[in-house]
Write a structure and sequence with these properties.
Elements: H1 2-21, E1 24-31, H2 34-41, H3 43-49, E2 53-60, H4 62-74, E3 82-85, H5 89-95, H6 115-120, E4 122-123, E5 126-127, E6 130-135, E7 137-142, H7 143-149, H8 159-169, H9 190-200, H10 217-233, H11 243-251, E8 257-261, H12 265-268, E9 280-284, E10 298-303, H13 311-321, H14 324-334, H15 345-349, H16 351-356, H17 360-369, H18 393-409, H19 414-431
Parallel strand pairs: 1-2, 1-3
Antiparallel strand pairs: 3-10, 4-5, 6-10, 7-8, 7-9
Helix pairs in contact: 9-10, 18-19
Amino acid sequence: MKLSATLTTLAAAMIVAGTAHAATELVIATVNNGHMIEMEKLTPFFEKAYPDIKLKWVTLEENTLRQRVTTDIATHGGQFDVMTIGSYEVPIWAKRKWILPLKTDAAYDVNDLLPPIRSALSYDGTLYAAPFYGESSMLMYRKDLAEKAGVKYSARPTWDEVRDAAAKMNDPKAGVYGICLRGKAGWGENMALLSTMVNTFGGQWFNMKWQPQLETKPWHDAVNFYVDMMKKYGPPGASANGFNENLALFNQGKCAQWVDATIAASFISNPKQSKVASDVAFAQAPVAVTPKGANWLWSWSLAIPASTKKAEAADKFVTWATSKDYIKLVASQEGWANVPTGTRESTYANPDFKKAATFAPAELKAIETADTHDATLPKSPYVGIQYAAIPEFQAIGTAVGQQMSAALAGTETVDQALKTSQELAERDMRQAGYYK
């Protein structure tokens, strides 16, 4: 009897050990933005709901993340089971069968996803990535400083108004700069902002013959305007500042104005993070000669690479992290003002969210008015607002971003930077066979 009991106990222990050993480990590549860091913190909630799945996080700076996941997906490396990618990659990678279509049930409620976001993450009518958060861009500003300086904005501010406001509110001696904008090189960093500026100045990346347009008047006008304004009224070292750096500056009270991703609104209006939370206000993204393409459309989303051997477990995680229940979980932990936004209609309809998030109306309007199919004054052959949805754009946008950052830093003139950018873009587009 004792031997039998011992063997039974041993067998049970082996089963438990085997079960523990058999737990599926998902490797998740993500960006080091605030909402993703919060997602990582909430790992215990997922692992409690799915005890047979363990999460391993690889959290990277934006440019590094893009390089790592693009290399891995293109070489079928299989390093990651879930990737954080954007609306730029989804249709390109889906067409190449690099990512898997998502499997969602009725409880997930795909129809609750905001139409512009759902459309951007679909290919041939099928959803290939789930939006963790969605965003457009808008003007965020210090209403206390604006009132003190006598600054008033139009319902749809112009870039001239923004520049004039920057001049009035600029006070370097007090540690306050009139305007903070992205300067860090990258197709998704400084070129996201600059592309929208070029759009509103009447420009485009490529004409209908796919010829780069980087030395046209709109590009010269927009980039000269940007560089001149930032040198006069921006913070020192602006050429190294991306989203996170400017967010930190704004939260410290060092930016009078900031044009950037709508997702920043929840952070700068959060008194736990921002010294100026009670003094922020919001307006639509500035325009110049046209409102077309003034505000971008983006979604940081979770996708499953075709190379994973853990697709079923990955699908469970993606569904969990982008569900209505996940948003409620974040609300219970951090409050409704700090949930991931820009994804679901139900979020914007929630009375608790509407009460807590003063930025919600401006954010939703920006997302709903962003049109990726009609973003430039002259007709363009590409889809996209702050990018052109072609595989070659990532390399071209990064190279141009380096030139624009150099122009902002003063190591090149705007004319030199645009000339070099045009030559680089022409070379890449010719090599890719777009034109001779």
